[in-house]
Design brief:
Elements (H helix, E strand, L loop, with lengths): L6 E12 L2 E13 L4 E5 L6 H8 L8 E12 L3 E4 L5 H7 L4 E4 L3 H4 L6 H13 L3 H14 L5 H5 L8 H13 L5 E5 L7 H18 L2 E6 L2 H7 L2 E6 L2 E7 H6 L4 H8 L35 E16 L4 E17 L3 E5 L6 H8 L7 E6 L2 E2 L5 H7 L3 E4 L3 H4 L6 H11 L6 H13 L16 H13 L5 E5 L7 H18 L2 E6 L2 H7 L2 E6 L2 E7 H6 L4 H9 L23 E2 L10 E5 L2 E4 L6
Function: Part of the ABC transporter complex GsiABCD involved in glutathione import. Responsible for energy coupling to the transport system.
Family: Belongs to the ABC transporter superfamily. Glutathione importer (TC 3.A.1.5.11) family.
Protein name: Glutathione import ATP-binding protein GsiA
Length: 606
């Protein structure tokens, strides 16, 4: 390592002007990044980690922020050390993209939808490197090849919306790496991605860093990603740095209470080995916590058989059906009272469509659904409305599923009013007890959704789902957008409610460690079919289907000694689920490898 760091942040303080006066985003933060080193900045939403990186790029001013104090020393390629906090915008324009590259969290907002991928990639090369159009195009194709994008020449002429999420993120990485910057800032670049794509992108960034000697500032709240990527770790909490050290030291002997709590809240794959039933997590700072296994019962609540859901693709002058998306293909499973069945898989595998089909929020094409011995498929609208008393759903994004103009109390009371279950003061008492149940203060009843944090909004969504005392709750990625510690609290809350009320969950997720923590049974989905299914221990400790094995291999582990190399990861690209109207898929045939442990024999394309 060279002695002089590429970037040094010294005593940074950032303030934002609001109607109620200045708000401090970052109070007093100092750290440095050395050449060829990856420094991970971890912390939860609002800790100031993104603000520090945006200050280094001097982009924080475009979001209403102001650098109130501190120095941002950047060691330029040929201009020596420069304090970016005092640099003018012309110099910053030259540095951005050329000497400091940035990968943003959401690739769709970082790319311009009206320009082709090629145009966006070559722009930086022509502005900063003075290349001709043809030279820039050749170099851009080369970079796309480096980030492992198939058929790069074809991709150059495509638009961002024509690429999948993982591909878009690779294009953003290619754009950031195009001018070979000295420093690369990656702001949560894998949050929105599936496990397999995330594993590939992390390995890719690691390889590019080693080949080019670029220094990396990596911002994340995922401790498993930190273990995979970091050389050094900076832990932030409420605008301050609370701890800094080499990655092994932070994981093995954290000093600050916040770091300890952060690590304790991470569900780790393999933690549940040898345990017969799911149990809540031990959380730091929670008094007299009951940790008891939740066995559930042997009585079947939900039986699904041969469920098939397809979406028509319309085209041509008369809007005829030209093809079908085979979202759910011949899926069968049972769920017992008081137990959790998890459906896992990557985006587009059909797990959300399957959950919605069970509640008939999307109409299935065929199949049988039986809830508590009631045939859900044969119900008319009036009876289906009545049957929904027993089945409720918690959506992925609580902000989108809550009404922004209603007070929280009315939102939780609404289902009871709709079904005429309670009235007057009785409703108020029941809402108050639901707030107690999801551990929110009763004073929040008069608040609106925008006045709550993400975790608190998700608790409101859970309270509203519980309002009708349902037997089945379909939880669609209900904790995927939450911070680690909030996610741990919400998961524990859901498990305590299950133990107390005997709820059954159909739990939809792509996070393998969370699924291992909460499930009694697990079904792994791929291209609309369940490829492997069985008791949690069987699927996690003895995966049989090649796709399940690939998924397990991709999960990052929160242990810096067990890092994944790029050569370990070889995923097949997922084939298209769109078929012509006359396509007849084969039925799903399973092989029982152990009692209750089924593996798909039909060719699933993997």
């Amino acid at each position: 390592m060279l002695d002089n760091p590429i970037a040094r942040i010294e005593g940074l303080r950032v303030e934002f002007e609001t109607k109620d006066g200045p708000v401090v985003g970052v109070e007093d933060v100092s750290f440095s990044v050395n050449p060829g080193e990856t420094v991970c900045i971890v912390g939860e939403s609002g800790s100031g980690k993104s603000v520090s990186s945006l200050s280094l790029m001097r982009l924080v001013e475009f979001g209403g922020g102001e650098i109130a104090a501190g120095r941002l020393i950047f060691d330029r390629r040929d201009g020596g050390a420069t304090d970016l906090a005092r640099a003018d915008q012309d110099l910053m324009r030259h540095i951005r993209g050329n000497e400091i590259g940035m990968i943003f969290q959401e690739p769709m907002t970082a790319l311009n939808p009206v320009f082709t991928v090629g145009r966006q990639l070559t722009e930086g090369l022509r502005v900063h490197k003075g290349m001709t159009k043809a030279e820039a195009r050749d170099r851009a194709v080369e970079i796309l090849r480096e980030v492992r994008i198939p058929e790069p020449e074809r991709r150059m002429d495509q638009y961002p919306h024509e690429l999948s999420g993982g591909m878009r993120q690779r294009v953003v990485i290619a754009m950031a790496m195009a001018c070979e910057p000295r420093l690369l800032i990656a702001d949560e670049p894998t949050t929105a991605l599936d496990v397999t794509i995330q594993a590939e992108i992390l390995a890719l960034m690691d390889r590019l860093k080693r080949e080019t000697g670029t220094a990396v500032m990596f911002i994340t709240h995922d401790m498993a990603v930190v273990a995979q990527m970091a050389d050094r770790v900076v832990v932030m909490f409420r605008g301050n740095k609370v701890e800094e050290g080499p990655v092994e030291q932070i994981f093995e002997s954290p000093q600050h209470d916040y770091t300890k709590a952060l690590l304790a809240a991470v569900p780790k794959l393999g933690e549940m080995r040898g345990k017969a039933a799911p149990e809540p997590m031990k959380l730091m700072g929670v008094e007299n916590q009951k940790i008891e296994p939740i066995p559930g019962t042997d009585e079947v609540l939900l039986r699904v058989k041969g469920l098939t859901t397809r979406f028509a693709v319309k085209g041509g002058f008369f809007r005829r059906t030209v093809a079908n998306v085979h979202a759910v293909e011949d899926v069968s499973f049972t769920l017992n009272k008081g137990q959790t069945l998890s459906l896992v898989g990557e985006s587009g595998c059909g797990k959300s469509s399957c959950g919605r089909s069970v509640l008939r929020l999307v109409e299935p094409l065929s199949g049988e659904i039986e809830l508590d011995r009631k045939d859900i498929m044969s119900l008319n609208d009036r009876d289906l409305r009545k049957a929904r008393l027993d089945m409720q759903m918690i959506f992925q994004d609580p902000f989108a599923s809550l009404n922004p103009q209603m007070q929280l109390m009315d939102q939780v009371a609404e289902p009871m009013r709709n079904y005429g279950i309670a009235s007057g003061s009785e409703i108020q008492d029941r809402v108050a007890s639901l707030f107690d149940r999801v551990q929110l203060p009763r004073s929040f009843m008069r608040r609106f959704p925008h006045e709550m944090s993400g975790g608190q909004r998700q608790r409101i969504a859970i309270a509203r789902a519980l309002a009708l005392n349902p037997k089945l709750i379909v939880s669609d990625e209900a904790v995927s957008a939450l911070d680690v510690s909030v996610q741990a609290q919400v998961l524990n809350l859901m498990m305590e409610l299950q133990a107390e009320l005997g709820l059954s969950y159909l739990f939809i997720s792509h996070d393998m460690a969370v699924v291992e923590r909460v499930s009694h049974h697990v079904g792994v989905m791929y291209l609309g079919r369940i490829v492997e299914m069985g008791p949690r221990a069987a699927v996690f400790e003895n995966p049989q289907h090649p796709y399940t094995q690939a998924l397990m291999k991709a999960v990052p582990i929160a242990d810096p000694h067990r890092r994944k190399a790029e050569k370990d990861l070889n995923f097949k690209p997922i084939p298209s689920p769109i078929h012509s109207p006359d396509y007849r898929p084969e039925p799903s045939v399973y092989n029982e490898v152990a009692p209750g442990h089924l593996v798909l024999v039909t060719d699933s394309g993997y």
